[in-house]
Amino acid sequence: MFENYKVYEIEYGGKKMTFETGKMCCLSNASVLVRWGDTVVLCNVTASPKPREGIDFFPLSVDFEEKLYAVGKIPGSFIKREARPSDKAILCSRLVDRPIRPLFPKDMRNDCAVVMTVMSVDPDCLPEIAGMCGVSFALSISDIPWNGPIGGIHVGLVDGQIVVAPNAEQRERSDLNLTVAANEDVICMIEAGANEVDNDTMLQAIIQGHQEIKKMVRFIKDVQAEIGKPKFSFQSMEVPEELFEQIKASAIDDVKYAMDTDDKTVRDERLAPIIDRVHEQFDNEDKSNAPIIDEAMYKLQKFVVRRWLLDEQKRVDGRKMDEIRPLAAEVGLLPRVHGSGMFTRGQTQVLTVCTLGTVSEAQKLDGIDNQEQKRYIHHYNFPSYSVGETRPSRGPGRREIGHGALAERALEPMIPSVEEFPYTIRLVSEVLSSNGSTSQGSICGSTLALMDAGVPIKRPVAGISCGLITEGDRWMTMVDIQGVEDFFGDMDFKVGGTEKGITAIQMDLKIVGLTYDIIKEAFEKTYKARMYILNEIMLPVIPEPRHELSKYAPKVKSIHINPDKIREVIGSGGKVIQKITADCGVKIDIDDDGTVVVASTDAEGIRRAISIIETIVNDPEVGAIYKGKVTRLMNFGAFVELAPGKEGLVHISKLDMGRVEKVEDVVAVGDEVIVKVTEIDQQGRINLSRRDALIAMEAKKHANK
User: Fold this and answer.
1) What letter does residue 662 receive in the DSSP assignment?
2) pLDDT band at 263, cuts 50/70/90?
3) φ, ψ for residue 194 (rounded to 5)?
């Protein structure tokens, strides 16, 4: 029945990886089931037979589908099925999209869909790596035009040693979370989070990962030679060379003038009438070649920018290759928030706001990996007004989620542990204006906001991007690329880090890949730029985290109690903890290990709540003084509650300094009084004295004088 069924296997990352094809999903252009350890990912690639009309880009979609059955979970939602992709799934989709996209023909307009369905997860074998290799395998044997194959691998740094394809236990201890994609010759994609890893170690980790990838690429090439289908032909949407030369001759001088400015708005205003004139001159009667003319004008702008860079070392705004645009930093812009910082680089401007919450407000995660929650969260918003457009807001897209994750990754190693700083931390980066590298602006703005909020980060972090122009064997890099250099260049190499090393990398390419020399130069240039941003711009504004939190931020204090006493603090049906919360105006979280976290904007309320909890879990001590509440009045005295469930008697003879005729003359139900424990009898009954407490308080007052 399955005459085309074939299984291929390779030793990869120290474990066997198998590729099964010809048995499942026979209607897609190609399908492969990848097994790596107990991780199983089904990869399908499909393409439409005809181009999509009226578009000027290659319509590729890449989806990484997490199925919770892969880890034996039932979705937690009301409808009990997977809904929209998780942030992790979107990030994995982008991880695969970036290395495969530049290898498709740029003039193809046929829709292409890549789908990775995660069916089983082995924690030691990352499904995104299995998916990337599976997609490369499927595209290579399919009839879809594609200039692969590639491979991908994960690399760690464990106890100072570079480890290729680390297992789950090693990843937990690793100072490096690096994913590399490559073909046999060059690096196609880098994505990394790191605990201040130096440039040389990072480069060596990339090189070692590449050596493993080469095995996968050679393996896929051999399979492609055996069973690969001929690639189908497609209708090219390339601009006819003759038409392009005519448009270039007519408009190049005007385009050069329009492009020669550091102001994006001025550039757009200058280009608009030029584009209209070219359309009037070269459009045919039915306007059917209008998309081709738009493509030609884009190509002409690209030609101008690249020739300036390659031939004249000239940038559109007149900067040198290693010169950063004008910079500015501010903190404390918003009075009621817990912390805020704004970072401006040329026409790119990002405002980040920091909000502090209790540990219980950490984000709960429902995914296929082992992470169940996170207390440090970074969100990134890119509104249409930031680029002068008018589209309505529809919530975060893949780009926003990806950039937010990059900034989060860059700062995460510098966030204090929950023991050092028992807060949930949320950062929101609002892009106010965008002309290149807003993700790196959000890293800088976030550092400012964290320090303004008083978060004791280990060291400040800055981010910068590096661009690239190539032509044959010629290449040159430039630091701090603006939008037009990103659009028309070959690379956006984003690096975030501290003075000690790299904390995050994201590399976007429009070409096949990079050599080691290019990567090394990008590391060197971005380090130098980061140091300038940190030392000359950010630290003069706020040299260290503030020593006090905002008065609007919750104050948090934690204590540890015997876990056996937790039920007493909570009480039957939660009555005790609810009463403490209401009386003291606090929020209380209790962990199973006995950690009690009390939070409030009122420091006195926190002190009172902790005092009550300590009284509950610790038996009252003879000689100790407590503040309690009068609960009952009797002829012979008053009962005072020291804490929920702990009550003692103040005899009428010990109710005041002098003689008391009636209890009601001194106290009433509900009064808060200071009392001293004078005795705890054999039956556990507590005897109290208000008189002795008053004497002790008076003596303490005189001693302080």
Assistant:
1) -
2) confident
3) -150, 155
Residue at token pair 């589908």: 65
Could you tell me if 376 and 408 are in contact, meaning their C-beta atoms sit under 8 angstroms apart? yes
Which residues is 33 bridged to in the sheet? Answer: 20, 42
Cα end-to-end span (Å), the chain: 98
Three-state DSSP at 648 gives strand
Classified as helix, coil or strand, 483 is: helix
User: What residues contact residue 699 under an 8 Å CB cut-off, 6+ apart?
Assistant: none
Whether 324 contacts 529, CB under 8 Å:
yes
- Residue 615: its H or E element: helix 603-617
Position 163, amino acid: V
> Taking all residues of the chain, what is their mean pLDDT, rounded to a whole number?
92
Both structure tokens of 556? 């948090």
pLDDT tens per residue across span 455-509: 999 999 999 999 999 998 899 999 999 888 898 999 999 999 999 999 999 998 9
Give the C-alpha separation, 111 to 52, whole Å: 7
Quick one: which of 461, 453, 460, 457 has its CA closest to 334?
A: 453
Sort 580 into a burial class: Cβ within 10 Å, 0-12 / 13-18 / 19+: buried
pLDDT computed for residue 117 by the predictor? 97
Please name which of 589, 612, 585 lies closest in space to residue 601, comparing C-alpha atoms: 585
Nearest CA among 134, 99, 95 for reference residue 117:
134
Residue 101: which pLDDT band, with cuts at 50, 70 and 90?
Answer: very high
Greater confidence (334 vs 487) lies with: 334
Contacts made by residues 257-266, CB under 8 angstroms, sequence distance 24+:
259/301, 259/304, 259/305, 259/316, 259/484, 260/316, 261/316, 261/317, 262/316, 262/317, 262/318, 262/319, 262/325, 262/346, 262/347, 262/482, 263/347, 264/347, 264/388, 264/435, 264/482, 264/483, 264/484, 265/388
Length of the chain as a residue count = 705
Question: What are the tokens at 149?
Answer: 């194959």
Sequence-separated (6 or more) residues with CB below 8 Å from residue 681: 687
Distance CA 627, CA 641 (A): 9
Q: For residue 679, which phi and psi values (nearest 5 degrees)?
A: -165, 145
Which of 67-76, 134-143, 524-533 has the lowest average pLDDT?
Answer: 67-76
Closest CA to 402 of 24, 108, 88: 88
Residue 93 CB-half CA count within 13 A: 22
Instruction: Kindly provide the b/e burial profile for residues 8-37, where b requires at least 16 CB atoms within 10 angstroms of the residue's own CB.
Output: bebebbeeebebbbbeebeebbbbbbbbbb
Q: Is the pLDDT of residue 75 over 80?
A: yes
Using the predicted structure, report yes or no on whether residue 286 has a pLDDT greater than 70.
no
Q: How far is 614 from 623, CA to CA, in rounded Å?
A: 16
- Residue-wise pLDDT tens digits, 338-389: 999 999 999 999 999 999 998 888 888 877 887 888 999 999 999 999 988 8
Closest by CA position to 618, among listed 683, 680, 690, 688:
680
Mean pLDDT value across residues 586-609: 89
Q: How many CB atoms lie within 10 A of CB 573?
A: 7
